[in-house]
Write a structure and sequence with these properties.
The chain is of the alpha+beta class. 50% of the residues lie in helices and 13% in strands.
Length: 367
C-alpha cells in the first residue's frame, strides 16, 4: 500500500506568531536531531509519513491540534530547521505552500550534490504523488501544499494538503517511499478524517479494470472518443451516477485527446504522468471506460480518522514560553552530550518513553 494515509482538518486562517514559529523551528531541529542520531533518517521519514505521529508532532510544537494550519506551519518549521542542519543530518526538505510547492523540483535538484541517489527519481515521485491526489483521486480537495522530505539515499516522504471550500475542510495526504510499489494501485494505507466525500477513486483496487480501459481508450483516435462523448450526452443516465455528463465538454477535450493519442501511453500510470492530463481528462475517459467496456469505477473514499506546550489559539491552554524554551534546551544539551559519549540524558528520555508505553498498555490491555 504506497500511501500511508491522510487527515481531514477544518480550514483556519491566520498566521503563526513569530515568537512561536521561532520556537517551533528550534524544537523541531532538536527532535529531528535526536531521532536521526538514535534511529537514522529512514525512521524520521517513517514517522513523518504517519498521520497520527505527524499530528502529535505538531501538538508538541505548540500548534492547534485540529487546524489545517498545523500541516503548513509544521512543515515550514521543519524546512527552516533543516536549512542548515540538514546537510549534517543527511535530511532535506523541498516545497511548501502555494508557489513554494511548485519549486519542489528545483529545490530537489539543488540538493543533488549532497545525494547518493538520482534526484530525477525524487522529482518524478513528487510529481506523481501530486498527480494522484489531484487527478486520480477526485475527492473535492485541491492540492495547495506539497512538501517532500528526503535523505541522501533517495528515500522520501511526501506531505501534501488540499482544500475544499464547500465544506471548509482541508485534507492532508501522507506518502512513504519504502512502501511504494505502484503509484496508482491502492495508495491509502491509513487515513484520518472527519469529513468524507464520494470521490472518483481511480487508484482503488477495484478500479483496476477501469485503469486498463482508460489507458486503452487514451490510445484511441481522438475523433472516436469525441464521437462517443457526444453520443452519450444524448442518453439519460440513472440519477445516482456520480460522473455527470454536464461536467464533461467534448470540445474542450479535443486537444488533450490528440496529445494522449500521440503519446500512446502504455499504462494508466504513464497516462497520468503526462503533463497535459488533468482531472477532466481522467473523468471523461473513466466515464467512457464504464459505459463502453463495463469497467466498474470506484467511488470509495479511502478515509478513516496530546498536548505538551499548549496551543496557538490558547487551547487547551496558552503556550507556556518558559516551558517551551526549557524543552528545547534539554534536548539540545542531551544531543550535545550524547555526541561526546555522555548518553545519560538521552537514556533517561528513552526510559521515560518506555514507561509511558507500559502505562498505556496497562490502561488499555489488548483484547
Amino acid at each position: 500500500m504506497p500511501r500511508t494515509g491522510f487527515a481531514d482538518l477544518p480550514l483556519h486562517t491566520g498566521r503563526a506568531p513569530r515568537w512561536l514559529f521561532v520556537r517551533m523551528t528550534a524544537l523541531a531541529r532538536e527532535i529531528v536531531t535526536v531521532l536521526v542520531d538514535e534511529f537514522g533518517t529512514a525512521e524520521v521519514l517513517r514517522r513523518l509519513s504517519d498521520p497520527y505521529w505527524f499530528q502529535a508532532f505538531g501538538c508538541v510544537l505548540g500548534y492547534d491540534w485540529h487546524s489545517s494550519g498545523l500541516t503548513t506551519v509544521v512543515c515550514g518549521a521543519l524546512k527552516e530547521a533543516l536549512k542548515e542542519a540538514g546537510r549534517e543530518l543527511g535530511l532535506f526538505v523541498a516545497g511548501g505552500k502555494g508557489r513554494a510547492s511548485r519549486r519542489t523540483p528545483e529545490e530537489i535538484a539543488a540538493a543533488a550534490a549532497h545525494l547518493r541517489s538520482d534526484p530525477e527519481a525524487l522529482i518524478r515521485a513528487s510529481r506523481m504523488a501530486a498527480k494522484v491526489d489531484n487527478h486520480a483521486l477526485q475527492d473535492g480537495y485541491q492540492i495547495y501544499h506539497h512538501v517532500m522530505v528526503f535523505d541522501q539515499e533517495g528515500r522520501w516522504a511526501v506531505i501534501q494538503q488540499g482544500m475544499n471550500l464547500e465544506n471548509r475542510y482541508a485534507r492532508r495526504y501522507h506518502w512513504l517511499s519504502e512502501t511504494v510499489v505502484d503509484f496508482v494501485n491502492e495508495p491509502h494505507a491509513a487515513v484520518c478524517c472527519d469529513e468524507r466525500t464520494h470521490p472518483l477513486n481511480m487508484v482503488a483496487a477495484e478500479a483496476e479494470a477501469a485503469r486498463h480501459a482508460v489507458a486503452e481508450l487514451s490510445r484511441e483516435k481522438p475523433w472516436r472518443l469525441l464521437q462517443e462523448l457526444r453520443r452519450l450526452q444524448r442518453l439519460r443516465l440513472p440519477p445516482h451516477h456520480e460522473i455527470l455528463l454536464r461536467d464533461i465538454h467534448p470540445d474542450h477535450l479535443a486537444s488533450i485527446f490528440v496529445k494522449t493519442y500521440e503519446a500512446q501511453p502504455a499504462s494508466f500510470a504513464e497516462l497520468l504522468g503526462l503533463p497535459q492530463v488533468g482531472a477532466k481528462t481522467i473523468r471523461a475517459l473513466a466515464l467512457l471506460a464504464e459505459l463502453l467496456y463495463g469497467a466498474p469505477l470506484s467511488f470509495r473514499d479511502p478515509a478513516r480518522f496530546a498536548f505538551a506546550h499548549g496551543g496557538k489559539d490558547r487551547h487547551p491552554f496558552p503556550v507556556d514560553r518558559a516551558l517551551y524554551d526549557c524543552s528545547i534546551r534539554i534536548l539540545r544539551e542531551a544531543v550535545a552530550r550524547a555526541r561526546v559519549g555522555d548518553r545519560e540524558r538521552l537514556e533517561a528520555l528513552r526510559r521515560l518513553a518506555e514507561w509511558q508505553r507500559a502505562l498505556l498498555r496497562s490502561e488499555h490491555p489488548s483484547p
